[in-house]
Amino acid sequence: MSIELEGLLTEIDHIAIAVNELDLAVRWYEENLGAICVHRELVESDGVEEALLKVAESYIQFVCPTRDSSPVAKFLEKKGEGLHHVGYRVKDCAKALEVIKANGGRTIDEAPRKGSRGTTVAFVHPKTSFGTLIELVQE
Ligand code: CO
């Protein structure tokens, strides 16, 4: 693998937590941790509504299903509320995905796609990434 990897990963973009009620989670973080909700978005393609609370240069992202067929609804049913995925900010999402696939890794997205906030994202299967669902996020 001759692709240059240095500097590919630039920041933790967000920690995503699956919740049953978005407003309750946001309020708890605001009232108990002083975190501020800076963005809310309905992501139709994923069947979720999300809320982003800024912490320094990163976010806490709450994800809440908007329909039963949403992967997050299935996650909540199976595991209950809790840590859902970690979003790593990358310089080049397509390149990061290409490296993982070239090394035999399993991905959920075949190619980068549109994420919330106008980002470009791709998910890596937790079977490949040591039990944690990874989202590669390019701003
Ligand atoms: Co995410």
Outline the structure in words.
This protein has 139 residues and is an alpha+beta fold. The chain has one domain: 2,3-Dihydroxybiphenyl 1,2-Dioxygenase, domain 1 (Roll). It is 22% helix and 40% strand. It has an 8-stranded mixed beta sheet. A hairpin with a 5-residue loop joins β6 and β7. The longest helix has 12 residues. The model has no long low-confidence stretch (mean pLDDT 95).
Would you kindly provide a brief summary of this structure?
By secondary structure, this protein is of the alpha+beta class.
Task: Looking at this protein, list some descriptive labels.
alpha+beta, 3 helices, eight-stranded mixed beta sheet, 2,3-Dihydroxybiphenyl 1,2-Dioxygenase, domain 1, 8 strands, 139 residues, single chain, binds cobalt (II) ion
CATH superfamily, called what? 2,3-Dihydroxybiphenyl 1,2-Dioxygenase, domain 1
Helix content: 10-25%
Ligand roster = cobalt (II) ion
Describe the global form.
globular
Please identify, by name, the CATH architecture: Roll
Largest sheet: 8 strands, mixed
Tally of strands: 8
CATH topology, anyone? 2,3-Dihydroxybiphenyl 1,2-Dioxygenase, domain 1
Radius of gyration, taken over Cα atoms and rounded to an integer in Å = 15 Å
Beta percentage is 35-45%
Tally of individual domains: 1
The string of secondary-structure elements, in order, is EHEEEHEHEEE
- Provide the structure class: alpha+beta
